[in-house]
Amino acid sequence: MNMAALASELVRALRGQRTQRAFAKRLGCSENVVYTWEAGRRFPSASRFLQIVRGSGINLPTALSRFLRTTPTWLDGNPSDPDCIVELLNEARGNRSLLDIAKAADRSRFRVARWFSGATQPRLPDLLLLIHVTSYRLLDFVAALVDPEQLQTIAPAWRELSSARRVAHESPWCHVVLRLLETSDFAKRAQVTPGDIASALEITTTAAEASLKLLVDSGQVLRSGATYRVQRVENVDLADDPRAVRRLKLWAAQIGVDRIHAGKAGLYSYNLFCVSEKDYQRLQTLHRAYFRQLRAIVAESEPSERAVMVNLQLFPFHEPTTRSSGS
């Protein structure tokens, strides 16, 4: 993805129907500066970009909370402050090492370390790149600010992702089928039938047929003669639709329950404990960081040999009547 082109388009979309002169006046800069941003001749720093977002009339804390799916305390201040850029990057980073991020971003470890420490700030294209390689949700980051359909660089990818999400709404098994077809075992077969899918996943042939049809209709799978081939794989994330998320979590949890009942292979662990409110918050942070780290490993894993599900749960049994300060 061309991050420089995306950065230019993003600034242009934030300007909206305003003239460059009017937008520049609103931002407190010269018209020529806005022109160079949109032309891709130079780019604002990360904090300056978030000031641009605020200047466009967007509620920045709300937008960032939507992307992060949480409202960290640093959003209570000025989210465009340079210190908050460091918080944003580290929130997306989780517990991934800077070396891993530097390799994924194709940037020097020294430069990445300076960005994450706040010694220097990334320019907008590098901010977008860092969001991409740490969270794998760059499209959602952009969507929290503007309509991705306005941006030529990502509009096709956004439509594909939206299509994949619709498929996941209709049939959660679709993406299990997709991942199964992606494995080297199924990818090398001269013929794959709905019955093969049903047998491997222990679902009905009718369910396998329905999932394959939805995947073919959405362009994620191509039917070629007597077999099915993966065209593309989307990382589907439905967290912007709480009802859909709840249904999918119930579906995933039930699969785990069914497999425990049947004595199927897998790791099924639980722990029950009491902790302070402060440490419960730390466990929530660790939970999210673990999932991000897991996704980073998955993104770089080759070859595709197993279709795997991870179902993580962390929840309190009650809300305390009074909260301790954690001090």
Explain what the structure shows.
This protein is mainly alpha-helical. It has 3 domains: 3-153, no CATH class; 156-230, Arc Repressor Mutant, subunit A (Orthogonal Bundle), CATH 1.10.10; 238-263. The protein has 17 helices and 2 strands. A two-stranded antiparallel sheet has the order 1-2. Helix 1 packs across helix 3 (31-39), helix 2 (20-27) packs across helix 3 (31-39) and helix 14 packs across helix 15. It is globular and about 65 Å long. The protein starts with a helix and ends in a 27-residue tail after the last helix.
Order of helices and strands: HHHHHHHHHHHHHHHEEHH
Radius of gyration: 22 Å
Main β-sheet, spatial strand arrangement? 1-2
**Could you give the count of β-strands?**
2
Q: Round the mean pLDDT to the nearest integer and report it.
A: 88
Approximately how much beta-strand content do the residues carry? under 5%
* General shape: globular
What structural category arises from helix and sheet content? mainly alpha
- Low confidence ranges: none
The residue fraction in helices comes out at 55-70%
Distance between the termini: 46 Å
